[in-house]
């Protein structure tokens, strides 16, 4: 289990390769990567605030729950905070399992919980002003399926 | 106890953290005390359905007891990922 | 859409980075990677046979179907054939979408169809002898959910 | 037409491809002709439920017509991914 909360950029490719390389006997690796979108075409930056201490605990709790529920050999969660620009990578998760269904489901579970239960908040800074990204009802609803 | 604010709650109240001496039994009691302080607190806590709370870094509801809590945090629904 | 069937190894990290970098306006990238497992601890090699011509057509058809069904901006399918060893990467898919659910579902759909509808066959060469990997009922059943 | 064999079907029959002159109307008719040839064909086609067929590189069932087909391929259920 590898949980990292960091301001620095990360290299998706290097992380994916390292994660896949350390899996023994796992036939399936799933990664999810979140990328900053510039929805209005005028995004200057996205600022991600988090709750140091609680963030790491919440992410570890979510990862442990995923490992309890599915046959996954390993979980990676990596999430940035601070100031990001359009097209920057925000975060990634990776899961490994013997059969693909477990890796897929565990990755979707991690994402659903991370979205609504890990203490991160996004603020968009655009030419028109700044505003906190509102939580989406779909994200809260997504938790009900687990 | 330490009371922490994040995102627009922090912006509305004007600081990220403060020391609060309280005998509030529950989160809701603490919210009432804070609301009574100043307009900016009243504004930040106007609609509890728009807020989430963590007690000692665990998500709780507003009826959660505060006995022995060292750290309470208020923030909007989370938007990670 | 990027479909490749090749004997040469591929670099998951380089492919994932290149795929993520060419997505404009997509907030979500999902990758799946399949890895050779040595189930009995005595695997000398895995040989993957395919049907040149049909393979590329079948994969393109599956990718097009995924792009019709979900809001995905791009799809990558890369599959090796020939002789592989334990822990070698067999194949990968990648999907990109605005919202994560589309990328996840499209990737699962690609994998389910690729497993049972693309003309690849795996043979395991072990110290005890050689044998063709049998199709799993679960893989056929998995198609029914789409 | 060209008839192709893959995986254990290829191994059982002993070659990957052959030219077949036939007037078979359907895949099933072609299978009957092949079965009648030699034991190794009969062995390969003993259980059609263990086989899949493609006509001109498209998956079909055994009742598919062969009119105009240039290429028919027989193989076991696929195991990609």
Strands of the largest sheet of chain A, in order across it? 1-4-6-2
Low-confidence stretches of chain A: none
The average pLDDT of chain B is 97
**Number of H/I helices of chain B:** 3
Assembly classification: heterotetramer
Tell how many strands the DSSP assignment of chain A holds: 8
CATH topology description of chain B: Ubiquitin-like (UB roll)
- Silhouette of chain A: globular
Helical/strand content category of chain A: alpha+beta
Count of DSSP strands of chain B: 5
Tally the helices of chain A: 4
- What would CATH call the homologous superfamily of chain A? Molybdopterin biosynthesis MoaE subunit
Task: Tell me what the structure shows.
The complex is a heterotetramer, with two copies of chain A (146 residues) and two copies of chain B (81 residues). In chain A, the strands form two sheets. Chain A has a four-stranded mixed sheet, sandwiched between helices. A four-stranded antiparallel sheet of chain A has the order 5-3-7-8, with no helix packed on it. Chain A is built from four helices and eight strands. Chain A has helices at 12-21, 54-69, 100-117, 137-142, and strands spanning 2-6, 28-35, 43-50, 72-80, 82-84, 89-97, 120-126, 129-132. Chain A has a single domain (2-143), classed as Alpha-Beta Complex (Aldehyde Oxidoreductase, domain 3). Chain A is α+β, with helices and mostly antiparallel strands and 146 residues long. By secondary structure, chain B is α+β, with helices and mostly antiparallel strands. Chain B has one domain (2-75): Beta-grasp domain (Ubiquitin-like (UB roll), Roll), CATH 3.10.20.30. Chain B has three helices and five strands, in the order βαβααβββ. Chain B has helices at 7-13, 27-35, 39-44, and strands at residues 2-5, 17-19, 52-55, 58-60, 71-75. A five-stranded mixed sheet of chain B has the order 2-1-5-3-4. The chains are: A alpha+beta (146), B alpha+beta (81). Chain A binds chain C through residues 11-17, 20, 23-38, 87, 89, 98-101, 103-104, 107-108, 111, 138, 142, and chain C through 11-17, 20, 23-38, 87, 89, 98-101, 103-104, 107-108, 111, 138, 142.
């Amino acid at each position: 289990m590898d949980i990292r909360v960091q301001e620095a950029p990360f290299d998706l490719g290097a992380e994916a390769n390292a994660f896949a390389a350390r899996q023994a006997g796992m036939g399936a690796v799933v990664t999810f990567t979140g990328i900053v979108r510039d929805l209005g075409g005028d995004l200057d930056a996205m600022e991600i605030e988090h709750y140091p201490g609680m963030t790491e605990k919440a992410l570890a709790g979510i990862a442990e729950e995923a490992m309890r529920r599915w046959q996954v050999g390993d979980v990676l969660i990596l999430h940035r905070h601070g100031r990001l620009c359009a097209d920057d990578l925000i975060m990634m998760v990776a899961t490994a399992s013997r059969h693909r269904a477990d890796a897929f489901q565990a990755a979707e579970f991690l994402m659903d919980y991370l979205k609504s239960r890990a203490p991160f908040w996004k603020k968009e800074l655009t030419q028109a002003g700044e505003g906190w990204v509102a939580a989406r009802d779909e994200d809260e609803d997504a938790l009900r399926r687990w | 106890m330490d009371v922490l604010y994040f995102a627009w709650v922090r912006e509305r109240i004007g600081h990220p953290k403060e020391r609060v001496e309280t005998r509030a039994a529950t989160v809701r009691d603490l919210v009432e005390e804070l609301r009574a302080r100043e307009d900016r607190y009243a504004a930040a806590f106007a609609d509890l359905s728009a807020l989430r709370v963590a007690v000692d870094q665990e998500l709780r509801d507003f009826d959660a007891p505060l006995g022995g809590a060292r750290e309470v945090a208020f923030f909007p629904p989370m938007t990670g990922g």
